[in-house]
Amino acid sequence: MTNHRRLFPDHHLDAFLFDMDGTILTSIVAAERVWARWARKHGLNVEAFLPTLHGVRTIETVKRQNLPVDPEAEARWITEQEMVDTDGITEIPGAARFLASLPDHGWAIVTSATRDLALRRIEIAGLPMPPVLVTSEDVVRGKPEPDCFLLGAERLGVAIEDCVIFEDAPAGIQAAEASGAQVVVITHTHREPMSTPHLTVPGYDALEAREGPNETLELFQA
Length: 222
Prior knowledge:
The structure is a single chain. The protein is of the alpha/beta class. It folds into two domains: 5-27 and 89-221, Rossmann fold; 28-84. It has eight helices and eleven strands. A six-stranded parallel sheet has the order 6-5-2-7-8-9. A three-stranded antiparallel sheet has the order 1-11-10, with no helix packed on it. Strand 5 (107-110), helix 6 (115-125) and strand 6 form a beta-alpha-beta unit. Helix 3 (58-64) packs across helix 4. The termini are close together. The mean pLDDT is 95.
């Protein structure tokens, strides 16, 4: 670990919780193709609409448009299209290596996607399957509420205060902050610089994790 700086040295860390889209993989190109088709079909301004998508559940995005449609039916259609349109889905740099280095007791993926879509994208991106996966079906309140992250920590059997959450989107960052965990912001997919008090990194190439005493985790940055 020569020339590596230990992050959160004063915190006891038991687990890392990862958002999926934009954090460990990028599906923005594929997702925006599907959502653009949906937006045009319903007469929405595509250019204004697309930046509002990321970090929240599909059904909540649909509901926010106040359209005379069945939100659940529309969300199902969008998810079905996203299951098929997978061109351009890739890992965030270094994510596969970093995730593979973590012990099974120490990490989870927490996403606003459905379980089927999450599993599909994880496979397409070539990432390891998580020991714990929390998806949109598992919580009543999605991000920016912290429920999904709290559930992820609970399923791992750790306190949320002893977790680091990796996020990229404002709604997810807000949820992470509300949970009480430490936060790292992944900026690989950001089109504009984000003002945030949290540590920001472009990806995982400069990050290293290792096990500490009593199955704890330690995080380092080159």
